[in-house]
Structure formats: structure tokens, C-alpha cells
Amino acid sequence: MKFLKWFWIILLWIIVLLWVIVAAYLQHPMFWADPSWDRLARIQQSPNYHDGQFWNLTETPMMTPDENGENDTSIFSRLKWDTGRRYSSQEIPSVKTDLKSLPKNQNTLVRLWHSAYFMILDWKTYLVDPTLVSGSPVWFVNKPFPWTSVYQPEDIPEIDYLIITHDHYDHLDYFTMKEIRDKVWKVITSLWVWAHFERWGFDEDDIIEMDRYDVSDFDDNIKITCLPARHYSWRLKQNKTLRSSFMLETPSKTIYIWWDSWYDKFFKEIWEKWPNIDLAVIENGQYDMQRKYIHMLPDDVVQTIKDLNAGKVLTVHNSKYAMANHDWDEPLNALDERLDKEWINSWITPMIWEVVNLDKNQKFSHRWIDLDVEDWLEYKGNKYLHHSSINKDRIWKQLKCLLPKSRKSECDELEFYQWKGHSDDKWLIQCGDDGCITYLKWWIEEYPTQEELWIEGSPCLSQNPSDLDCLIKDLPANTQEMNNSK
Questions:
Q1: Which of 45, 401, 416, 433 is nearest to 242 (CA)?
Q2: How far apart are CA 117 and CA 345, in angstroms?
Q3: For the chain, what are the domain ranges?
Q4: Its pTM surpasses 0.70
Q5: Which residues are within 8 A (CB) of 482 and not within 5 positions of it... i.e. 6 or more apart?
Q6: pLDDT per position as a tens digit, 125-169
Q7: 71 phi, psi to nearest 5 deg
Q8: What is the largest CA-CA distance in the chain?
Q9: CATH number given to 99-357
Q10: Which of 114, 235, 252, 295 is surrounded by the most beta carbons within 10 Å?
Q11: Kind and range of the H or E element at 385?
């Protein structure tokens, strides 16, 4: 009995101590800030705020029932769904760009990681949702892929406009904000989010707080309009802060800045008012069926792209965190497949930190398709593929034909040829810099027991990837006599 008595006393003290530690930790400024009375009065007058919280334009349930009709909202339910490929097993390709040395007279965009990107437009610099230090208040949640933390706040140059869409931790990082505070001229954000910046030491004169459909005009013919989003906010308190998208208009560009949201009718309304959007940055990733009204599924992304009809589309919210139950590259592959079927060619796929010239039509390879080598593919030497017990459907999905859209139908007419310079179990695949142009699906179905593939770069194809005649002309002399194996 005496032992049990001391056991319960010690357990009680441990619980009290843990409660005190947690309560003290939650007082850290990264978690929450209440607005001043005058700011709160403006919030309470907003047509989007009632019953103590901000509301979406359309009713949006946080969770939807699974196939068993259950709503399991716990983090443990998502952990048990883990497929094993939520994290990339190999470093995602990226390039190191010195943002501070980019010319101000060129309209450019550089995607950082997750939903963050940097822009130079008409001599002004813009930074959107930078999360360069931490995407979570605790180290064991939202752990970034290890190679995605190479770039830090000190790599960020002077910023004219910092745009924050909402206050989720993976979009508003306290530690990044503290580091770049003295580099920022103006902060553009939504109602109540202003309070975080005030608590973190930003000058209140430098913060522009906007409600839906508010318009802010700045010098040099710059206009920013606050627009709807269909999501939720949670930073210790739920839906107390407004979540928004923004339309940025400069003398030469119109940019739609969007992030986490589900599909809604307001996208068509946005296009009706801004029919000539140069670039739309939209969400693609961290979705699942139980949160399908919070994060868009691939089909929703396609419909949004159609509705906005922008000249260029950049998708974000992927490739840094494993926040949902899908393979890390599924959002990219699923969107690629759907846009191919729709013959939509506005999607740009730059590497992380690669410079995008917004005044030109650049071609970008699908840089993510060669990854996850340990799971299903092993690269050796000069583009040598070792084919062992790998997923054949995935190979076809990853290394499919990447011809320009106007020549896509010719993929199915390409033939495989045995390379006479090698043994019978090796086959030639000619590739240009823009991707393979062979009918790999047929090869896998026809020769399921083959163990090795050779990929040889073709200088002719590199210069003109759409020139199919080059496939024959550029072969080495000892391979001119080939067997048609189709």
C-alpha cells in the first residue's frame, strides 16, 4: 500500500510538472498573438467574421468520412497510413542561386521550398510564405527532407514586399521572420495575422492588414488585391485569423498568389475580373480523401488551372514535408498525367532555386522523375539503368515520353531496336535533354524479363528534341543495321 501511495504521488507531480512545462512553452511568441483593441474592432466589423471566427465563403468541413464512414482526425491515423514513400530516399535536384545577385531589370521567379518563392517584378522584390527554418513549433512534426534546409534566411536579399497568405506554421515561420525582419519594407497579410508581426517586433507602419476584396495601391503602379481562399487557420486557436489569396498587379505582370485551399467557384470569378493572368501559383500536394475540402486533389488542381487560364502555372506545397498519406512525388506525377490528357502546357516545373524568366517561355525537364532510386531504380555510370525487381507501371509512369505536346501522338509510333553493339539483353533508348522519347511501356510488356537498359544521350536530339528522324540519324555507325523488335 505504501508503495502505491508513493507511486501515485510521484505520478501526480510528474503530471503537474509536465503541465507547467507545456503551459510555459505555449507562452512563446511563435504560438499566438492577440490584436490590439482597435485592430480587434476592425476584425469584428468584417463581414467574414462572426461567432468569434473567420468563415469561408462556402461551408467547408474540416474532415470527411473515410470508406467506413468514420472521421478520425488524430495524427496517429495519418501515421498509420504511411506507404513508405512519403519521404524521398534521394536528394531532390536543386540549384544554388544567389538571390542577391539577380538583376533587378529582369522579371524573375525562384521557387525556394514548399510554398515559398522569391520574385523580382519591375525592379521590386517579393517574398511569399518563406519557411526556411522550421515548419512546426515542435521538432518531431513536419520534419523537412534533410537536404531542403541548405538555404537559410541569410540567403534572402532586401525585400520590398513580404506576402503572407495565412498563419499555419509551414507558411509563417517565426524564426525566419525574426531573421529577415530588418530586410523587409512592407508586410502584406490578412486580418489578425498582423498581430503576430507586431508581437515579433515589426513596425506597425510597415504592416498592411487586408480583408477579402480590399485593395492596396503602392508607388510605381503596384496594386495588391486580397481575395478568398477555402481553407482553415490554426495556430493554437482555430479560424481566428483570415486566410487569403492575393492578386499582385505590377506595370508589366499580373500574378495570382494562392496556396492551401480547395476548389471553389471564386476561381472563375477571379478569371472574369483578371482574364490575363501571367502567372498563377497554386497548391498541389499534402492532400488525402479525409481532408479533400482542405487541400485540393489532382483533379481539382486541373480544374483550377482551367478556370484561371493563366499564361504560366507554378505548383507548390510539395517536395519538402510529408504531411499527408501520399508518395512524396505523387502530386507531381498525377498532375503531369492529367495535364497531358488535357493538352495543357502552361505548367512550369523548374528545379528548386532555379531561376524562371517570366518574360520568356522556358522549357523545364521533369526533374523529379529520376528520384527514389533505392526504392525502384538504381543509376550507375553514364545514365546506366539497372532493372531488377522494380515496379514496371511506375517506370512507365516516370520515364514516359516527354515530347512537346504537338508531337505527343508520335510517341506511340516509335519502335525499339536492338543495339548490335551489346548483348541481346540490352536495349537502346535514345534520349534528349528534355526527356526520353521512346515507347517504354511496350518494351516492358513485351520483355518483362530483361534485366538491363541502356540510355545514351543524343546530341542531335539535345538540339532539337522534337526531331524524330534524329533518332535514326544520330545512331553510331555500327548500329545502322538494326532489328525492328516491335
A1: 45
A2: 21
A3: 99-357, 377-479
A4: yes
A5: 417, 418, 419, 420, 475
A6: 999 999 999 988 887 788 888 778 777 899 999 999 999 999 999
A7: -115, 90
A8: 92
A9: 3.60.15.10
A10: 114
A11: strand 384-386
